[in-house]
Design goal:
By secondary structure, the protein is an all-alpha fold. Helices cover 68% and strands 0% of the residues. It is built from 20 helices and no strands.
Length: 434
């Protein structure tokens, strides 16, 4: 029996190791790591915008069915709050054009300021087709709708600049010229080429890549917001953690662009009067916040904290007490590496199963009219019982972490007993041998 269990665990470990290699290399490439770092750098702007969106929800009489604001004295400022949200969350791609280009330039050991300005200008030229008769420009592409084009223009523009610099296709300035002036003149030729290409595609050819990409990817994006996708993501994240790899950094953060685009779509729908229960995307915020943060660790780690604290084993009790505070903020490394869960043949299966199953249950619950959906970005380290009310405006979402905890506890109990019995057997054998 034990040999069969070990054989199963060995196969699972080998499979995860094979998967982790390509995933790790992919996540650590200059392009992917720069995109992730750029999106994270823009997170404070999005979070501040989310705060103003929450204030809009609290002060607007158009949100909900009562026709009255939740907090009356905020009503005169409701429209002003909405404007602030439009200048932050709804300008997401504009800010990411700066941060992604900056980080990619740093990876390539280039002048980061030059790269950031290049990425910003290229994105604007590539997405704005002049002004209308009233002298206005359309900023629709500056929202999360333009995020994929933002990533594309940021990476390609910096790559072209690097090609010019590597092959010395630049305007040379005398050595007496200050370096910052020399860098500015040296960038004129690549800037001119990149801007011209962007202008030809968007203005001369009148090709709107943002609209085209959205139309092509819309079916994929819409079908990705499903219970099966949610459970698959949770499964892979937990599988990586179970062999000691950082599943969040290696896999979950790869979904940040699509999660932010869903979050922005929900925020726009809410600002247009849609109820929080009827927002279009359930997995909004995926990669940074959202539903997965309500379910995965409350089921996969929190039950173990309780079992350790109530254990008669001093070792478990110590790990449980010291891990309690970090785990409330979903900092789970002390449990995964301290108990440990990683490479533990008795706990790996319930660890993966509990988080995956609870994520599926959480998705089903949030897909009903009983719970609001995420429209605001909340920091990932926020306790799950606060993430829901803050991100959805619905106090009932506190029930989802509670249900996840119960699911995890039920799954863990039989495995925990077997694990403790195995430790007791080992201790008896050691005493006999000694």
């Amino acid at each position: 029996m034990n040999s069969e269990k070990k054989g199963l665990m060995d196969k699972l470990t080998d499979l995860t190791t094979k998967l982790s290699g390509p995933l790790g290399r992919f996540a650590n490439t200059d392009i992917i790591s720069s995109i992730v770092a750029g999106l994270i750098a823009a997170t404070p702007i999005i979070m501040v915008g989310s705060i103003f969106l929450i204030l809009f929800v609290l002060g607007s009489p158009s949100v909900g069915t009562s026709g009255q604001p939740l907090i009356g004295f905020l009503e005169p400022l409701a429209d002003k709050f909405s404007i602030m949200n439009s200048l932050t969350m709804s300008m997401m791609s504009l800010y990411c054009a700066v941060s992604i280009s900056y980080n990619y330039g740093a990876k390539k050991k280039m002048n980061t300021l030059t790269c950031a300005l290049l990425g910003l200008a290229t994105f604007i030229i590539f997405t704005v087709d002049g002004v209308n008769k009233a002298g206005e420009i359309s900023v629709a592409s500056f929202s999360a709708n333009g995020l994929f084009v933002c990533i594309l223009t940021s990476i390609l523009s910096v790559r072209i600049l690097k090609f010019f610099l590597d092959h010395n296709i630049t305007i040379k300035m005398p050595e007496s010229v200050p370096p910052n002036v020399g860098n500015a003149f040296g960038a004129i030729l690549p800037y001119a080429l990149i801007f011209t290409i962007a202008w030809l595609i968007r203005t001369v050819m009148n090709f709107d890549m943002v609209a085209w990409l959205n139309s092509v990817m819309q079916p994929l994006i819409a079908t990705s917001d499903s219970i099966w996708m949610a459970m698959l993501i949770a499964f892979i994240v937990l599988l990586l953690w179970s062999v000691g790899l950082h599943g969040d950094n290696m896999f979950l953060t790869l979904f940040t662009p699509i999660g932010l685009s869903w979050l922005d779509a929900n925020a726009m729908a809410l600002a247009n009067g849609t109820s929080t229960h009827d927002l279009p995307f359930i997995l909004a915020g995926l990669g940074q916040s959202g539903l997965v943060r309500l379910t995965i660790w409350t089921a996969a780690v929190w039950p173990l904290i309780l079992l350790m604290i109530t254990s008669k084993r001093k070792q478990f009790k110590t790990v449980g007490i010291t891990s309690l505070a970090p785990s409330l903020f979903t900092i789970v490394e002390p449990v995964i590496y301290g108990l440990p869960i990683a490479l533990n043949p008795y706990l790996m299966i319930p660890f993966i199963l509990s988080g995956t199953l609870s994520t599926g249950v959480g998705y089903l619950l949030m897909s009903t009219d009983l719970f609001g959906k995420f429209y605001a970005l909340v920091p990932w380290a926020t306790p799950p019982f606060l993430i829901g009310p803050l991100g959805t405006g619905d106090l009932k979402t506190i029930l989802i972490p509670i249900i996840s905890f119960v699911i995890g506890l039920i799954i863990y109990l039989p495995f925990w007993r077997v694990y403790n019995n195995s430790l007791n057997t080992e201790e008896v054998e050691k005493l006999k041998n000694s």
